[in-house]
Amino acid sequence: MKLTIFGTGYVGLVTGACLAEVGHSVVCIDIDQRKIDNLNRGVLPIWEPGLEAIVERNVAEGRLRFTTDTALAVKHAEIQFIAVGTPPDEDGSADLQYVLSVAESIARNMDGYRVIINKSTVPVGTADKVRARVEQVLAERKVEVPFDVVSNPEFLKEGAAVGDFLKPDRIVIGTVSPRARELMRELYEPFNRNHERTMFMDVRSAELTKYAANAMLATKISFMNELANMAEILGADIEEVRKGIGADPRIGYHFIYPGCGYGGSCFPKDVQALERTAQQIGYEASLLKAVEAVNNRQKQVLFAKLAKHFGGPQALRGKTIAVWGLSFKPNTDDMREAPSRTLLEALWQAGAKVQAFDPVAMEETRRIYPEGPAFSLAADKYSALDGADALAICTEWQQFRAPDFDEIQNRLRAKVIVDGRNLYHPERLRSEGWTYYGIGRA
Ligand SMILES: NC(=O)c1ccc[n+]([C@@H]2O[C@H](COP(=O)([O-])OP(=O)(O)OC[C@H]3O[C@@H](n4cnc5c(N)ncnc54)[C@H](O)[C@@H]3O)[C@@H](O)[C@H]2O)c1
């Protein structure tokens, strides 16, 4: 089948590459000329395990093309995906300008039936707005062209995006149109060979399903962080509590790790957008507000622990802190809303110097925070420690899990670790003379 994807970011590029991988003919379009030029030279805009090889193979075999030419992209296929960004607006609601601008481009160029698929995360009611915008443009063009608008939210996880897309838990499709439904069924057929993963539902339910999923996951994290903070005061160990509740199959072990807060391009903005939706319909979403507030507070805990250790925020002036992990989670270079950023900025505000290392997010970090007297990026995890007064861990990359503590001790000025991901055993470290602070562990 032929299809077009608007937006070549994390979602668009992975979707395009994976749909080409199963044999479809895919055109990916973006308004960012540099991104498209790079992609045409084989340079990917993002770091995502396994993606480069798939892109390379499918480009070489002629199933995947990159362009900025809207007319060509709309002409290419009946199936048109929208996978552009939906960043938070000033009030936290989802900014739909990019989605609606794509809808307009499709409407300006379509000459026959099109199914327009929203893969971006968009508030309930967006399909209606897309439909209205397309109808408006078609009316201006004085043409009548049939089309359907479908919701097909994406559930991939950055860092495991290719695997998630190729082996999805579920494929949610919101449409009541038989024609669109048949096209979508055929498009996703290759992903349903083992068992049926596609769930058809009405458009609004599909739109809400995406927010429900992200809000639930964010709630689990904030719940654990709330309990972690209480455990610290109560003299309990949240890691024991985590195992104790995870054993209950109604709760499960997934996604109940306490830490230094959730980040990324999705949870923070999606929880906020759902809250704004609630506000717009006159509903008081108390739980969502709390989830967000707990997370904002949790992003401050690493700084608070460092400040307390040194005797107050003012005592951090002139200190050097080593930071391991900058991306918002392992296996990605995505720095959007990363807890590391809250820590870095608070440390600079307090007059401290930061020496940081991340296995893949260094370039992205440099783009956001240029190096200078208060900030340097180290070539490897141990060099980041040289002469630092403490080590803070923000991201649970594999290579931080079993480090050489003698090497750490030799490089640091003092044996202090503030661990935002509970990677180490407090007792073992303390017995070896470390001052060790985890999350939710007395
Ligand atoms: N990143 C994730 O893990 C993830 C997971 C599920 C859903 N989502 C959702 O998917 C959507 C896209 O997220 P992302 O992380 O891929 O965003 P992104 O910022 O990485 O990519 C968006 C791309 O769209 C392009 N774009 C903007 N306007 C355009 C237009 N008019 N025509 C063509 N291209 C245009 C941008 O240049 C950019 O390359 C968002 O709604 C997001 O919430 C993201």
Q: Summed up, what is this model?
A:
With 442 residues, the protein is of the alpha/beta class. Helix content is 43%, strand content 14%. Nicotinamide-adenine-dinucleotide binds at residues 6-12, 29-32, 35, 83-86, 98, 101-102, 120-121, 154, 156, 158, 265-266.
Extended strand count: 14
The number of helices is 17
Give the terminus-to-terminus CA distance: 58 Å
Strand arrangement, major sheet:
3-2-1-4-5-6
Using only C-alpha atoms, the radius of gyration works out to 24 Å
Explained architecture:
- This protein has 442 residues and is an alpha/beta fold.
- Helices cover 43% and strands 14% of the residues.
- It is built from 17 helices and 14 strands.
- Strands 3-2-1-4-5-6 form a six-stranded parallel sheet, sandwiched between helices. Strands 11-10-9-12-13-14 form a six-stranded parallel sheet.
- Helix 15 links the parallel strand 10 (353-357) and strand 11.
- The longest helix is centred in the middle third of the chain and has 32 residues, at 203-234.
- It is elongated, with a radius of gyration of 24 Å.
- It starts with a strand and ends in a 5-residue tail after the last strand.
- The relative contact order is 0.09.
- The protein binds nicotinamide-adenine-dinucleotide.
- Nicotinamide-adenine-dinucleotide (NAD) binds next to helix 1 and helix 5.
